Amino acid sequence: MQVTRFICGGFALGIRFNHTMVDSYGIMQFVNAITEFVKGACAPSISPVWQREQHFNARSPPRITCTHNEYEQIPQNKSSSDNVDSGKMIRTTIFFSPQDIQALRNHMSSLGNFGRCSRFDLIAAYLWKCRTIALNPADPNEVVRLSAVTNARGKPGLNIPTGYYGNGFTSPVALSTARIMCTSPLS
Fold first, then answer.
1. Where exactly are the transmembrane stretches of this chain (predicted)?
2. In a domain, 8, yes or no
3. How does DSSP assign the chain, residue by residue?
4. Would you call the peptide bond into 156 cis, given omega within 30 degrees of 0 as the criterion?
5. Residue 97, Cα to own-chain centre: how many angstroms?
6. Residue 134 falls within a domain, yes or no?
7. Does residue 3 form part of some domain?
8. How many Cβ atoms from other residues are within 10 Å of residue 181's Cβ?
């Protein structure tokens, strides 16, 4: 950590951290604790907790309870993304307004059998489907994946303490075939 004080009275704070020890949520807890000390607190309002071995030990003996697709090797065979001319691909940022979200929800409801879901689930499913269709996979049985970093803090059954500053995230993977993604309704 480095603090640079400027003549005008302002300052800049630079932080470098090793992601094997802490995630962004944990580092912000650390920065907030420092801020509280600077303001005169004798202790941080959220006490830091490490105790990783108490919260994240593997079962003994190990027991596999589900498939962890996030750790599977992706086959190196030709995939649909290999068929796309990278010169024609564009990178862009897409903003979904509340009206866009409502339009997607209305569209899904009109198809029937659509329950409530989060905005993230709705947009992720929509973009996953659109991307798969755009790639136009030659093999309809090609497995397509969606992975997103997910905060594990506050999830039922995990009991991650409030002050835990280590890594508290996971990267689950959803799998489907190109055929299902391209032909099934989003719901």
1. none
2. no
3. -EEEE-TTS-EEEE----TTT--HHHHHHHHHHHHHHHTT-SS-SS--B--HHHHSPPPSS----S--GGGSPPP-S--GGGGS-GGG---------HHHHHHHHHHHHHTS------HHHHHHHHHHHHHHHHH--SSTT-EEEEE--EE-TT-TTT---TTB-S--EE--EEEEEHHHHHHS---
4. no
5. 20
6. yes
7. no
8. 22
Q: Bigger pLDDT: 6 or 70?
A: 6
- Structure tokens given for 65: 């309870």
Residue 105, CB half-sphere, CA atoms under 13 Å: how many?
Answer: 14
Q: Tell the residue number behind the tokens 């907030």, with chain if given.
A: 32
Tens digits of residue pLDDT in 118-149: 899 899 999 999 999 988 888 999 999 999 98
Nearest one of 54, 173, 11 to 2, comparing CA atoms = 11
Give the separation between CA 172 and CA 147, rounded to whole angstroms: 6
Cβ atoms of residues 111 and 187 within 8 Å: yes
72 CB neighbour count, 10 Å cutoff: 12
Residues of the domain holding 178: 49-183
Total residue length of the chain: 187
60 occurs within a structural domain: yes
